[in-house]
Design goal:
Layout: E1 3-7, H1 13-21, E2 25-30, E3 43-46, H2 55-66, E4 68-73, H3 79-84, E5 93-94, H4 99-105, H5 108-117, E6 125-126, E7 139-143, E8 152-155, H6 158-167, E9 172-176, E10 181-189, E11 195-202, E12 205-207, E13 210-215, H7 220-232, E14 237-245, E15 251-257, H8 265-269, H9 274-282, E16 299-301, E17 309-311, E18 317-319
Parallel strand pairs: 1-2, 1-4, 2-3, 4-5
Antiparallel strand pairs: 6-9, 7-8, 7-9, 10-11, 10-14, 12-13, 13-16, 14-15, 17-18
């Protein structure tokens, strides 16, 4: 079985368990002992903060101890660190693009520049000290380096824009507000940057920047655009591409996140087999692209779940089975 190490596992139970079903031995890491994904992996380890000088060394020790073949970051927090130090994690492969791509995609202004350099349509974007005199409102003030839809403000006039720029707590960009329908496309590429599949989905509802309701759509324009974007950057491994179809029909890209997207269960249910493909790639196989090979019309709606833990004999937390509560009323008539 192929051992896969997941970093910053957090709440991504969906991804860890999907790899387990695909035949991987799963090892999850996090700084927080209450991260639920830890307890759905075959093994887990608590590690230091991502910015700790010993972070990569701790991951290297886990790679050696468990004969890990693949390292999969599950959030944006450590992508740049892992991309810069991928050689130190050998013989495991890191499921990330080249470091310059990871660094650019982590900075919304650099990402916009990278898109334009490659002929990829992107909404007009400026740094605050380089704004044109005339602006078409509305515009958005966005954190240059952010995730989860944090520190994003809409401005419908110049005074509102000045207000938000004066008060935002983080370095920001100003970006034209897209007016069309938003889509996400989940892609997976091989280590040569060849796109193996691209699965678009609608953004019916999002919460905290993460899709909680959506539907797969077999749209040739979105599929081809996502393939072209992924191969132009290039992407190695997974990416979530966020784009808008404007009223003119033009597709404009706002973000490319080089990881499995928050809506991962939807392309998985549609038949992506992305975990199996990732395992095949790290084992030296060369799967052929199968663009458009997925089930359309699959709808996802997410909900809260939970995991209860108790201290084991050595004091570490471990899951325990909850007793089914007694009914409040024995018979419907007694309720």
């Amino acid at each position: 079985m192929t051992a896969v190490l997941f970093t910053c596992a957090g709440q991504r139970v969906d991804i860890v368990t999907a790899f387990a079903r695909a035949g991987a031995t799963t090892i999850a890491t996090d700084i927080n002992p209450l991260a639920p994904a830890l307890y759905h992996a075959d093994r887990y380890a608590l590690v230091k903060r991502v910015d700790d000088p010993g972070y990569v060394a701790a991951l290297h020790d886990l790679v050696r101890a468990h004969d890990v073949r693949l390292v999969v970051p599950l959030t944006d927090l450590d992508q740049v660190t892992l991309a810069r130090h991928r050689d130190e994690l050998e013989p495991a492969a890191v499921l990330l693009p080249p470091v310059e791509v990871v660094e650019a995609m982590a900075d919304k202004y650099l990402a916009h520049v990278a898109f334009e350099e490659r002929g990829i349509a992107s909404p007009p974007t400026w740094l605050p000290d380089a704004l044109p005199v005339e602006l078409d409102f509305p515009v958005l003030v966005k954190a240059r380096q952010g995730f989860g839809s944090r520190n994003i403000y809409r401005a419908d006039a110049r005074d509102e824009l000045d207000f938000h720029l004066a008060r935002t707590p983080v370095p920001s960009i100003v970006q034209a507000c897209c007016r069309g329908e938003e889509f996400s496309v989940d892609v997976l590429c091989d280590f040569g940057g060849r796109c193996l599949n691209a699965i678009p989905r609608t953004m019916i509802e999002s919460k905290g920047g993460e899709s909680i309701k959506g539907m797969t759509v077999k749209d040739p324009g979105l599929i081809d655009a996502a393939r072209a974007i992924a191969e132009a950057l290039p992407i190695w491994g997974p990416a979530n591409i966020q784009l808008f179809r404007e009223p003119s029909g033009r597709l404009e890209v706002t973000d490319v996140n080089p990881r499995f997207g928050g809506g991962f269960p939807l392309p998985l249910a549609a038949g992506s087999r992305y975990p199996e493909l990732a395992i095949a790639l790290v084992n030296g196989d060369r799967p052929e692209p199968r663009l458009g090979d997925f089930r359309e019309g699959v709808v996802m709606t997410r909900f809260f779940s939970h995991l209860c833990l108790t201290a084991g004999p050595d004091g570490t937390l471990e899951p325990f089975a909850e007793d089914v509560p007694d009914p409040v009323a024995a018979e419907p008539s007694e309720a």
